[in-house]
């Protein structure tokens, strides 16, 4: 584009990652050319987006995302206005205006390929050296303009092992309720990125520290840091107590700012299959260890599905119940729904991912049964969910330190033909008797609102 008189720079995450020694996953370009002008230059170009119009330039399997220099659409508005949420962002501007309208200083760097020089209009190089995540401009305004930036701040801090700058962190705590204004698909996609970025454990710790986890999913927050059931202390807090957490409840995480500002009341967790506080603590410990194994897997450039990422987060709390010899298929399915459905509802996970999550969790029975008997597991038929179940079993085994579900602890009587509870036979039947495949009944089985209920065909 420079040959045609336009400015064009590499911008954003690719510049940041190159400067900190990480391999960029993709390359983005910022240019003075408008989307239509970019399309006129490249036949292999497609314009996308409504809120933020972009040009995608295709080079084989690679896509170069090309954006036009933009100005902040709310530059002249009062920062105290009741609603600063940006709904359209197609006000074109200059190179300098484009840099200062970006979210964080470490993402506001340009790289001139021809001159081989980094252009820094926002002091991002200094923050890279200091390992700080800092907003460009007033952090309260930035987070109110686009509350998803709060999740992005956590993502960069966790993935790069950076610290969130003090004023930015304090503004995040003040504005965390603004996340409710964002479109659900944008929020859940950013949650997926948090989990799939190689720092899922640290991301969840930061979400819990800041109180964002409680806002996104009270059920998930209760799993990772709340009490199992209501106690007298909970009732006292509800009647006007100070609501502070005790030392044991906050010992697992590191708090950068004044931790009193992050302490919000945690909802008690009630699960029929997990009523013992000691058992919750054991499975919570397993969950953190499993997330460590998951992060190691992602860091080896292993591609993971959204469903597997969420199952890794919640699977440790229900896996032992699913594969226990005394657990019948129907009870296992009910436990999965009881654990997962609130998270599906609160995060508004898409039906396709919710169904695949349920298949992955239920298929742990098949994996455990096959491994307990040293039998090969049939992965034919394109059942991606079954392959994910094998991967989840391996992650749980790593969390257990080599034992647990993946080693087949308790699962010898589980249904080992299909990962679908509608196909389950009587677990007390002898192995020598021929297994009868129950015919699936169409319709009438899915309760309203239960996205994780049994679909008529396996998700792939």
The number of distinct β-strands equals 9
The secondary-structure class comes to alpha+beta
Q: What is the share of helical residues?
A: 40-55%
Number of helices: 20
Low-confidence stretches: 75-79, 230-264, 403-448, 455-460
Side by side, the strands of the main sheet go 3-4-5-2-1-6-7
Global shape: elongated
Distance between the termini: 41 Å
Computed over alpha carbons, the radius of gyration is 25 Å
Can you summarize the main beta sheet? 7 strands, mixed
What is the helix/strand order? Answer: EHEHEEEHEEHEHHEHHHHHHHHHHHHHH
Strand content: 5-15%
Quick recap:
This protein has helices spanning 13-19, 35-41, 95-100, 124-130, 139-145, 148-160, 166-175, 184-196, 200-210, 212-216, 218-225, 232-238, 247-250, 277-299, 306-314, 319-323, 329-347, 351-362, 364-372, 384-400, and strands spanning 8-11, 28-31, 45-48, 54-59, 62-68, 109-112, 117-120, 132-133, 163-164. The chain is α+β, with helices and mostly antiparallel strands and 460 residues long.
Question: Can you offer a commentary on this structure?
Answer:
- With 460 residues, the chain is an alpha+beta fold.
- Among the domains are: 1-130, 2-Layer Sandwich (Beta Polymerase, domain 2); 219-229 and 268-423.
- The protein has helices at 13-19, 35-41, 95-100, 124-130, 139-145, 148-160, 166-175, 184-196, 200-210, 212-216, 218-225, 232-238, 247-250, 277-299, 306-314, 319-323, 329-347, 351-362, 364-372, 384-400, and strands at residues 8-11, 28-31, 45-48, 54-59, 62-68, 109-112, 117-120, 132-133, 163-164.
- Strands 3-4-5-2-1-6-7 form a seven-stranded mixed β-sheet. It has a two-stranded parallel ribbon with strand order 8-9.
- A hairpin with a 5-residue loop joins strand 3 and strand 4.
